[in-house]
Design goal:
The protein is an alpha+beta fold. The protein is 32% helix and 22% strand.
């Protein structure tokens, strides 16, 4: 029985928890980065994909042979090479077979391997698979010592460290992965364009990224679409190895009877599930966020066909599609982060030139290793052939030794100075090989192999010739995937950055009249319609109406608080009229000790008059007070102990300002004396010995000053010379009959 370790045991060490966690987390991070998530720059594969292809090759699942059950492949991969869950391995295999996920699939699947709608593949017991010709190119030369092998996880077999990769898989099929502290995201590209860039780099080793992007201009996605990104952005992305591309769906219009039309989407962005896209559009329709769209239908078969029906023939299709691009995945941003493992197994971000150069260096290494392997084979064969020729020249003596000597092998080696290999070959020779014709064939083979040996030795010494051979290999690949073939032609159109399309808010939200109510306790809601009689409106116990504003669902409203901050809310975001609404502080970060002074519908060209109760204020443009965040925008800065008291709209025709204090003294001065500012305390409007500002507004001097004299009654004072003065004066007592509330309305 094993004893329990104790602190005195030599096998137990005291380790700080932070050190133990750091060491173990680092080990986990390195394992994730190098053994799971990041692809190798040379073959563009993660370990699970590389092991899948290698296992399928061992099962002889090449394109010339039949299919085998996917479960058989997954079982071999899990048992021999990849000790992880079978579902994870099968999911990786499924993706290699999907022509909407990979630009050039590596697995030829038979059965249900999922679809562009986002449906899952059938269980592995139902599906079958074999390798494609592209996968065979990745494996080409693996049996010729082209790459290193290492022991598998259990040490019972060997697996390739990297594949020979006669196909530029990293850029052609792309890669996605998330590791610890880093990620990779490489979109697919057109292999014909990649070959053109590779050949240019071979011919011009010092070529920059600009020249390479001329030949390999942008990603090419299996699902097509239109890339709407400026050339400068594309170039900068490939130079840095980081960035993103805007990808849009391809669409056109079809004319119908009566002058109407419908929009048909024929290609959707990469990795966007079609069913989920249709569901999102339908949800926006139900939420009345796409007011110009009447219906959406999925009429797809083998080809994508989404039909969008506009609400009327007067709807501009460009505006409708722009609203869809902004609200749905008909437009997406495809990230690019070329974070890969280099030949030293070190993760780093590479630019386009470095990725292409790493691939070419790998191909040169593969060529050298295959050449040396072939030379070793030729040397062994020439050694055997030399032995055969010696045997034919001394045939009678060889036969005598074999028939009469007790140890014919040793005697052959002694008599004819043969090697051990040559002696074994002669002893294993069949009798029918002793024909004269066979001798002539051996001499021809010896001459042919000698010539090939000399040629390969020259290849090892001549660097320029090696690059010509690699260039010829790339030309052959480029011809196989010519742009004239269905698999080789570019699927994604390279467009230009779209011109800005102004989308009226009515195209996104139904314009309906509403009445916004804000109670004294800060509960806000929007009643449908414009209401003049609100006597039947209910509030919570102890609460009552404070602010009322007539607006539309397409409007923004500005809320001005006693702290001098402006808050902005979309009317469409307000709770409906059922119930009591919701607390305003759920929508804006209004401090508990502050209150709302005024509500106003936002008018981009409008101006506001702001004032604090200490008698300071200024004019401000409404464009300068719109807040982008919940905590609002500080505009008026009241003095310590003062509060923002007034926020009034200003008409362009108003030429005078009137202010009244708590002392009922009234002052009128020219509007020109009131400055327009973006923020601050403002200027002195009126001076007070006691009290402060009670009310202020702007008006047209020639029309006279008006104020409320009770319900439904308005009084006007035309003779205003007595109260006219300069800004900052004390003013004179208000005219007889002025409002007892000391306010103008």
């Amino acid at each position: 029985m094993t004893s329990t370790p104790t602190a005195d045991s030599p096998n137990v060490q005291d380790v700080r928890l932070v050190d133990a966690l750091s060491e173990r987390y680092l080990s986990y991070a390195l394992s994730t980065i190098m053994s799971r998530s990041l692809p190798d720059v040379r073959d563009g594969l993660k370990p699970v994909h590389r092991r899948l292809l290698h296992a399928m090759q061992l099962l002889r699942l090449d394109p010339e042979h039949g299919y085998k059950k996917a479960a058989r492949v997954v079982g071999d991969v899990m048992g021999k090479f990849h000790p992880h869950g079978d579902q994870a391995i099968y999911d990786a295999m499924v993706r290699l077979a999907q022509n909407f996920s990979l630009r050039y699939p590596l697995v030829d699947g038979q059965g249900n391997f999922g679809n562009i709608d986002g449906d899952n593949a059938a269980a592995m017991r139902y599906t079958e698979a074999r390798l494609t010709s592209v996968a065979m190119r990745l494996l080409e030369g693996i049996d010729e010592d082209a790459v290193d092998f290492r022991p598998t996880y259990d040490g019972e077999a060997q697996e390739p460290v990297v594949l020979p990769a006669a196909f530029p898989n990293l850029l052609a099929n792309g890669a996605q992965g998330i590791a610890v502290g880093m990620a990779t995201a490489i979109p697919p590209h057109n292999v014909s364009e990649i070959c053109e860039a590779l050949r240019h780099l071979i011919a011009h080793p010092e070529a920059g990224v600009e020249a390479l992007v001329e030949r390999m201009p942008a990603p090419d996605f299996p699902t097509g679409g239109i890339l709407v990104e400026g050339r400068e952005t594309l170039l900068e992305t490939y130079k840095s190895g980081r960035g993103a591309f805007r990808l849009r769906a391809r669409w056109n219009t079809e004319s119908l009877k009566g002058g109407t039309y419908q929009i048909v989407v024929t290609e959707i962005p990469y990795q966007v599930p079609k069913a989920r896209l249709v569901e999102k559009i339908a949800d926006l329709l139900g939420a009345r966020k796409l007011t110009q769209l009447a219906d959406v239908r999925d009429e797809s078969d083998e080809q994508v066909r989404l039909v969008l029906e506009p609400r009327s023939r007067n709807v501009d299709p460009e505006v409708l599609m722009e609203s869809l691009f902004r609200q749905t995945d008909l437009e997406v941003r495809i990230p690019l982060n070329m974070n890969v493992l280099d030949a030293d197994n070190t993760p780093r971000v590479m630019d386009l030139r470095e990725v292409l150069q790493a691939y070419l260096t790998h191909r040169e290494t593969v060529l050298l290793r295959r050449t040396r392997n072939r030379l070793d084979q030729i040397a062994r064969r020439l050694e055997v052939l030399s032995g055969y020729l010696i045997a034919f020249l001394n045939l009678d003596e060889v036969i005598r030794i074999i028939r009469e000597e007790d140890d014919p092998k040793a005697e052959l080696i002694r008599t004819f100075e043969l090697s051990d290999t040559q002696a074994d070959a002669i002893l294993n020779m069949r009798l029918r090989s002793l024909r004269r014709l066979e001798e002539m064939e051996l001499r021809r083979e010896h001459e042919r192999l000698t010539e090939e040996q000399a040629d390969l030795n020259v290849l090892l010494e001549d660097g320029e010739r090696r690059w010509r051979v690699i260039d010829d290999q790339i030309v052959g690949l480029q011809q196989e995937f010519s742009t004239q073939t269905p698999l080789g032609r570019r699927h994604t159109e390279i467009g230009t950055a779209p011109a800005a399309v102004v989308i009226p808010l009515e195209a996104v939200i139904d314009k309906e009249p509403v009445t916004v109510l804000l109670s004294e306790k800060g509960w806000i809601r929007a009643l449908k319609g414009h209401h003049d009689d609100l006597s039947e409106t209910r509030y919570k116990d102890g609460d009552r109406q404070k602010h009322v504003l007539k607006a539309h669902t397409t409007d923004k409203i500005l809320l001005f608080a006693t702290n001098g901050r402006f808050y902005t809310l979309g009317v469409d975001k307000l709770p409906g009229g059922r119930g009591f609404g919701e607390p305003l502080r759920l929508s804006v970060d209004l401090p508990n000790d502050q209150d709302i002074v005024a509500l106003k519908v936002y008018t981009p060209s409008g101006k506001l008059l702001l004032a604090s109760d200490d008698g300071r204020g200024f004019l401000v443009s409404e464009e300068d007070v719109v807040a982008q965040t919940k905590n609002g925008k500080q505009v008026l800065n009241p003095a310590k102990g003062a509060e923002a008291a007034i926020c009034r709209p200003v008409s362009d025709s108003d030429d005078a300002v009137v202010v009244v204090g708590d002392n009922r003294k009234l002052l009128i001065f020219s509007r020109e004396e009131l400055p327009e500012m973006t923020r601050g305390r403002g200027v002195i409007l009126q001076r007070y010995k006691d009290g402060g500002l009670s009310d202020i507004k702007t008006f047209r001097f020639e029309e006279g000053l008006t104020w409320s004299a009770g319900p439904g009654r308005i009084r006007t004072e035309s003779n205003l010379m007595e109260w006219q003065g300069k800004r900052g004066q004390a003013g004179r007592l208000a005219p007889r009959g002025f409002s007892s509330s000391n306010r103008f309305d």
